[in-house]
Amino acid sequence: MAQDGLRSLTVALALAALLPAAALAQIALKSPSWNELTPQERQILAPLAPEWDKLDAQRRQKWRGIAKQYPSMHPEAQERVQSQMRTWSQLSPAERQAARERYRSLNQLPPEKKEQVREKWEQYQTLPPERRNELAKQPPPQTRGGARTPAPRPPGSNDR
After folding, report:
1. Mean pLDDT of all residues in 106-116
2. Of 55, 94, 125, 134, which has the maximum CB count within 10 A?
3. pTM for the whole structure
4. Which neighbouring-strand residues pair with 10?
5. What is the spatial distance between Cα 106 and Cα 31, in angstroms, rounded to a whole number?
């Protein structure tokens, strides 16, 4: 379960880096079905095909915006987007909602806190897979109110 939460956070952070709010606001609100997408959009968005027609208009437009930017991305960025779509498509609706909530929480942090989260995330990414799995199995830290915190536990740090 903790690993799923970590995966949700990974996706949320990655998407946050790809989609500035201003870019999302410029996307038109047309919401085509899967069959109405262009062949290029269907190829790029293929990991989302099984659920496309269940997505709301805003989510469809977000993904179409990514597909529009996709051809101008470097190959590494394209692979990252494809990987993120595959991961996102495997999340349950509850996991996706949790990831969106974490994204909103992280987005509301002051700049210095955002930088701390980014640095901790980069540290976590450099850990060997065994250590990341070990951390993923640990229960998430709790806030005073008992709710989960929006960021993962700092790598190598068990004191809070």
Report:
1. 91
2. 55
3. 0.54
4. none
5. 28
